[in-house]
């Protein structure tokens, strides 16, 4: 079977990492960015508020962008006015966030997988969960040794209205870019989030190097293997 459109997950897939370790490292850095602007910030309360904002994005019903869902939920829960709070967050994601690269493990096979898909005429899309601003996602792409220009699109919280594992995240992509699900392959490491693509008819490849299955769900993927094996698969299947 030949796939024309390859949807790649980022965190844990093209950018190998352990999600829990990554979040535990960068969240205090984000809280510290607010502490620099206002003394006496309760870091634990701020991190808890950010987690609630994340849940608001995951539960977004499509009536607003994920960015709007996040910041509406954060109203009154931050130590500075909302507009200033968003500016602080964006400044952090452009700069200080890069310190979190220390807990990721870039792989040469990520670049080879993307290259394999493109060399054979396929189009590649970065189907990362859109819970970050674009600047944060572009930084993580660079950590992986890739460039935003490598992808047809990058899903970010500014322009998406659903999140994985909601199947509407995938159906929205299919609709927006007029993609035939039978010509698509979703490659990712998260059993719940990435394999949800199958619900809208997209074939799936589970990347097993840093596979995540927090809910111990049954694994139902069309293909699976390491990132290296994904690169080899794409050299033949695209």
Tell me what you see in this structure.
By secondary structure, this protein is α/β, with parallel strands linked by helices. The protein has two domains: 5-18 and 105-237, HAD superfamily/HAD-like (Rossmann fold), CATH 3.40.50; 20-101. The chain contains nine helices and five strands. Strands 2-1-3-4-5 form a five-stranded parallel sheet. It is globular and about 60 Å long. The protein starts with a strand and ends with a helix. The model has no long low-confidence stretch (mean pLDDT 96).
Please describe the topology of this protein.
Elements: E1 5-8, H1 19-37, H2 43-58, H3 66-74, H4 82-94, H5 108-119, E2 123-126, H6 134-143, H7 167-176, E3 184-188, H8 191-194, E4 203-207, E5 223-225, H9 227-237
Parallel strand pairs: 1-2, 1-3, 3-4, 4-5
Helix pairs in contact: 1-2, 1-4, 2-3, 5-9
Major sheet details: 5 strands, parallel
Shape: globular
Query: Can you tell me the CATH superfamily of the largest domain?
Result: HAD superfamily/HAD-like
| Overall average pLDDT | 96
The percent range for helix content is 40-55%
Using the 3D structure, state the CATH architecture of the largest domain.
Answer: 3-Layer(aba) Sandwich
- Overall structural class, as computed from helix and strand content, comes to alpha/beta
Spans of at least 5 consecutive residues with low confidence: none
- Placed side by side, the strands forming the largest sheet appear as 2-1-3-4-5
Give the N-terminus to C-terminus distance in angstroms: 8 Å
Per CATH, the class of the largest domain reads: Alpha Beta
Strand percentage lies at 5-15%
Give the helices and strands as they follow along the chain: EHHHHHEHHEHEEH
Q: Predict the CATH topology of the largest domain.
A: Rossmann fold
Number of domains: 2
Evaluate the radius of gyration. 18 Å
Q: Can you count the helices? A: 9
Number of strands: 5
